């Protein structure tokens, strides 16, 4: 399936549709995600809820299911009393659940180090760790996820170009292609680096099939897509959040939603080949994206 994913991505005039937010759909199904493991807790406690979430997005038209492993780590599982062997099984389960739900392709999520801290630092970066420490953190779970047979590893919501470089080192040689997607604001990474410099890390890296942005305001997406395409010459991945703001201290969303499926035409015209939604974008919005993509093709 890996070769099939790469071939589908290369098809001109065709964009693959990603799913939407995992956590918001799980919450709409009645799940409490206040635990530090967030959605990853359900890999152990109630995997059927994750399967239902993937199935809801597949039914809405998503071509690609992103696994519930964003916040999953050996350190986080250990704090929850889950040993190494069980944690490896849960990481592999995340891929199996996504595969079983019916989308064409599975992207195994590798979230940033800050997500494991559960304190909002994934929106800031700059953790005070060396590149080697970050690579050593990411490599073991990337190895396990790769062994489960996803079509692509989704290095997503990366706030810091330094961490992106570390994760690319961590996944090198695993035999699975990746996409690299930054979390951005005002044309920079969350850590404040120029996006052109951040995107340039993917240029010339054959393992990176696509590069782009996610969990950013929808109104900033088109410019970011165009820049990623210009800098790297690669297909671009884009999946904004709802446009609402996240208050990490209050752990709540603020402001109005600005996600609009009508924007997808501009994203595709600018070079996007993987499009979808992130936090607070649900199956209804993915269904709208599917309709726009079908109409445009």
UniProtKB/TrEMBL annotation:
Cofactor(s) needed: Zn(2+)
PANTHER family in alphabetical order: HOMOCYSTEINE S-METHYLTRANSFERASE-LIKE ISOFORM 1 (PTHR46015:SF1), ZGC:172121 (PTHR46015)
Stored SUPFAM superfamilies: Homocysteine S-methyltransferase
EC code: 2.1.1.10
Keywords (A to Z) from UniProt: Metal-binding, Methyltransferase, Transferase, Zinc
InterPro entries: BHMT-like, HCY_dom, HCY_dom_sf, Hcy_S-methyltransferase
One GO process term, biological-process aspect: methylation
Species name: Streptacidiphilus monticola
Pfam families the record matches: S-methyl_trans
Signal sequence range: none
Record has Methyltransferase as a keyword: yes
Record domain Hcy-binding: where: 4-293
Domain of life, per lineage: Bacteria
GO MF term (any one): methyltransferase activity
Name this polypeptide is given: Homocysteine S-methyltransferase
Protein's gene: mmuM
Residues noted as binding Zn(2+) in the record, renumbered to the chain: 215, 278-279
């Amino acid at each position: 399936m890996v070769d099939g994913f790469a071939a589908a991505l290369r098809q001109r005039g065709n964009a693959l549709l990603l799913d939407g937010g995992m956590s918001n759909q799980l919450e709409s199904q009645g799940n409490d995600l206040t635990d530090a493991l967030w959605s990853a807790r359900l890999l152990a406690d109630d995997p059927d809820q994750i399967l239902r979430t993937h199935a809801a997005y597949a039914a809405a038209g998503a071509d690609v299911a992103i696994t519930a492993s964003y916040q999953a780590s050996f350190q986080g599982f250990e704090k929850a009393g889950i040993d190494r062997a069980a944690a490896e099984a849960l990481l592999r389960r995340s891929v199996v659940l996504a595969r079983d739900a019916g989308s064409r392709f599975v992207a195994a999520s590798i979230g940033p180090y800050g997500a494991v801290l559960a304190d909002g630092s994934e929106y800031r970066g700059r953790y005070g760790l060396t590149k080697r420490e970050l690579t050593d953190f990411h490599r073991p779970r990337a190895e396990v996820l790769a062994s489960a047979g996803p079509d692509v590893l989704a290095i997503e919501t990366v706030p810091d170009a330094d961490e992106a470089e570390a994760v690319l080192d961590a996944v090198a040689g695993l035999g699975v292609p990746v996409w690299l997607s930054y979390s951005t604001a005002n044309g920079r990474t969350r850590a404040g680096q120029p996006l052109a410099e951040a995107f340039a890390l993917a240029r010339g890296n054959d393992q990176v099939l696509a590069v782009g942005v996610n969990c950013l305001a929808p109104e900033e997406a088109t410019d970011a897509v165009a820049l990623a395409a210009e800098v790297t010459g690669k297909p671009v991945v884009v999946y904004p959040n709802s446009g609402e703001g996240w208050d990490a201290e209050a752990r709540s969303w603020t402001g109005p939603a600005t996600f609009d499926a009508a924007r997808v035409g501009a994203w595709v015209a600018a070079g996007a080949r993987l499009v979808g939604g992130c936090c607070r974008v649900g199956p209804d919005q993915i269904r709208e994206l599917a309709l726009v993509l079908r109409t445009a093709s």
